[in-house]
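Q: My labmate handed me this sequence with no annotations at all. I'd like to see what the chain might look like in three dimensions before we decide whether it's worth expressing. Could you predict it?
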Amino acid sequence: MNPDDRQRFVRELQARGFYDNFEAQFRKKDGSQHTGILSAGITTIMGVPHIVSTTRDITERKQMELRLAESELQLRTIIEAEPECVKLMSEDGTVLQMNRAGLQMLGADTPEQVVGNKALGLILPQYRQAFTELLRRVFQGESGHLEFEVVGLQGVHRWLETYEVPMRDAQGRITAMLGITRDVTERKSSEAKIQRLMNLYAALNQCNQAIMHCTGEDELFNQVCRDAVQFGGMKMAWVGLVDRDSKRVDPVAAFGSGTEYLEGIRISVDAGDPSGHGTTGTAIREDRPVWIQDYQNDPRLTPWRERGAQYGWAGVAALPLHRSGRVAGALMLYSAVTDAFDEAARNLLEGMATDISYALTNFTLLAERRRDEEALRIAAVTFETQEAIMITDPRGMILRVNQAFQEITGYSAEEVIGNDPSILHSGKHDEDFYRDMWAALLGSGRWSGEVWDKRKNGDIFPKAMTITAVYGDRQQVTHYVAVFRDISNRKKSEQEIHQLAFYDALTKLPNRRLLMDRLQHAMSASARHGKHGALLFLDLDNFKNINDTQGQVAIARACHSASGRFLSA
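A: Here is what I predict for the chain of 569 residues:
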């Protein structure tokens, strides 16, 4: 026996009179060492004290125990060095053991913060039932797998993926659930990002489909908001247009969770108005997208945070929309997760806003084209009026005439188009007349007056004409439009009225009214020039006798005969 062991053994034996299961090192005859268990007691034989002992060699057992201890140390070292969580849990969900990696995943500084506590308290409510079911199946002898989200002791959210198997004792009884759990937060984040991009691609595709099929702004706005929610994964979307007079943004379409948020909302684009410093007002006023990655904590949303907190919005984007190159409003998108608008998402959404703006411009152009077409139809009907219309180029060459022109002048359109209007000149106007006409046109762009022209058959006729210059974008003359009507009947009527007013109907001689007018004119001229004139009175002899004896018929015949002599003299 090893000397130190022997001394200790003797002391204990003397003190107690016996010793059971004393472990000591023994040296064999060949000098080798072995471990043994020694039991001994003191007894008296024939009055002489003797030590009676038994020894059992346990060298092999000790070697086995040493190997087991070394194996356990190696296993514990491996488990502690394992970068993934290794844990044991009881049937009621209590954590029995957990390695360092697992403690770090849960934000624990010491094992005591986790070991001995139930894990369900750290698992988000929506995953607790699935975890309880996994625990139940494992203790029934099955293995299982689950992805779930936890909130660590320091408030950090993590996604975990766990694989669980039954832990059995030597008799095969399940004593615990053994699990290996890894942190898959980064993978989940990447998957969520990919999914968001896929959703946005789908929304962009639907938006383009809507642009092709929608016939107006209202229909397009409603469809875009619906697509952003149903395909793009947004919580809510709305479109607001600017009222330029009031500088307010009025919602015109909305879809999703929280559309009631827009009821009575005040949003301005005026930088001097507090309601103009939110995402919508800023995006429209500064004509740039505005991205809010954290709705609840961004100071720019302070006036609206309480109003929108109840809807679970975590991010918001404001994208200006344009019509014909000018900011017309904004598309507003609300996300359910923070940091949803990364660079890739921004590029897609800006592309969507560009496509919508392109559609708005097309709607405007289409409306303008329809108005132009309507104006052309009206102009076409107006062109074919009873008044003659002649259109020339800036040089005065005829480009187009209407049917009334052809009927009045006798010329067909083919005969006059490409010719100068001088084809109609009658020769009754001198060069000064046309010089004054062009001076008025070049000076004021308009001339109006009476002109004597000649028809194709040679007849000369009077017309009342108005000529108007047509100007282009640069205020240069592009056309002249002449509108005229034949006033031959009016001239004839005027002549008849003049004849009745100033001439005797029977004799065709000037009456007293015309005589007095001419006499007054002659007297004024004589006084102005210092000259004299003479007035001759003629009388018909026996006029009264003829009237009394022969009657009115004879008097009329006599007057007519006398007037004929005067007119032919």
